Amino acid sequence: MKRRDFIAKGTAGALAAGAAAGAWAAKPKKRYEFKPEKAPFSFKVTVPKPQGTMPTSEFGKMGIKLSKLGFGSHMSPDILRFTEEREKIIREAFDLGVTLFDIYDIEQKCFQYEPMGRYLKPIINDVFISISFQPNEGRTDEQEFERDLKLFGRDHIDLVRFWVESPDNPTFRMLLKFKEQGKVRAIGMMVHDANNLDKALATGVPLDFALLPFNFYHNICWLGEKGDDFSPLIKTIREKGMGLLTMKPFAGDFLVTPFIKITKDLTAGKPVNFPQAAQRYILNSGINADSTLTGMYTLSHLYENVAAYYNPTMTKEERELLDNLREAAESSSQSLLPDHYKWLDRWAPTSPLNRPTALG
């Protein structure tokens, strides 16, 4: 399968009428310089509030129905002080149909469990809480988990992630015990590398779900002529009845602004929205992710992303934009990724790492 055919073939019947491989725009002749940037931060609402219904998905065999858009609560220290604004965004997300909230505690020492517990308190029994489990500040596994329950004001956590390769891991055994007691509803693992999940499943680790990066550039269901074929990973997840969560819908937090700037040039003023195009790519990819975790810091971010889920049909212009952005990013991708994510380029169909010289 040729690279340019991927979206068209992978989303047959789901895309707008008239989609065809011949409709794709030509490769950009201009060379773009990518410089990672923080997104401009403003609470001024520049996007209309969307109207519609949030799609949901049955999550594996858990009997849980999640919103297709998940709220990723990554936080930056420079906006930590805006507690009232943050609470408003959280509540608005729920009102718009978002029911899954993925929450980190110690990231950049922002400690989000306590404030998120407060923000979600009035709706705490109507949402699903997802965490990455890791004891901190000298606490034992049991002490850490009991602290988590207390901060969220609940008797259970819905989704708990823990990196594991053997069922004999003592922390994993503790989480299994808590699941038997009803304190955990689902245990999963983030796929940091294509082989992680294989190792866990080969040793008999009973996982309920997996979380992996998926986006228009670093995708893992690519079936092209270059790079590895990662589609069996998703097939394995589904065959085992596991839930599937994805993250990094825009390829990286510090890439959103560069992509938006280049979008304005590539689209020549046409009203094509990069974040919405990126989300619709995932929705139309055929992997049928149960939910996509997305970092959102303002109401404009929230409205922009929710609108894509209310109206998931992809336009010809959006497909052309993503194809051209992929071409433009190809030569710069390695310089844009932090060291711990450079392996993602093995998953990108047109990455320089997947050239014969790189693969050896």
Identify the notable features of this structure and list them briefly.
alpha/beta, globular, disordered N terminus, 34% helix, 360 residues, TIM Barrel, 13 helices, 10 strands, eight-stranded parallel β-barrel
What does this structure look like?
The protein is α/β, with parallel strands linked by helices. The chain has one domain (3-17, 34-359): TIM Barrel, CATH 3.20.20. The protein contains 13 helices and ten strands. It has helices spanning 6-10, 83-95, 113-120, 141-152, 170-180, 194-202, 231-239, 256-266, 274-283, 299-310, 316-330, 333-336, 356-359, and strands spanning 56-59, 64-67, 69-72, 100-103, 128-132, 157-161, 184-190, 209-213, 243-247, 291-295. The strands form two sheets. Strands 3-4-5-6-7-8-9-10 form an eight-stranded parallel β-barrel. Strands 1-2 form a two-stranded antiparallel sheet. Helix 2 links the parallel strand 3 (69-72) and strand 4 (100-103). Helix 9 crosses helix 11 (316-330). The longest helix is centred in the C-terminal third of the chain and has 15 residues, at 316-330. It is globular and about 55 Å long. Residues 1-25, 220-230 and 351-360 have low confidence and may be disordered.
Summed over residues and divided by their number, the pLDDT gives a mean of 81
Distance between the termini: 22 Å
Strand order of the largest sheet: 3-4-5-6-7-8-9-10
Helix fraction?
Answer: 25-40%
CATH class: Alpha Beta
Principal-axes shape call: globular
How many helices? Answer: 13
Tell me the major beta sheet.
8 strands, parallel, barrel
**Radius of gyration (Å):** 20 Å
What string gives the helices and strands in order?
HEEEHEHEHEHEHEHEHHEHHHH
Briefly note the CATH topology name.
TIM Barrel
Number of strands: 10
Going by CATH, the homologous superfamily would be: NADP-dependent oxidoreductase domain
How many separate domains? 1
Estimate the strand proportion: 5-15%
Structural class: alpha/beta
CATH architecture tag: Alpha-Beta Barrel
Instruction: Report the uncertain regions.
Output: 1-25, 220-230, 351-360
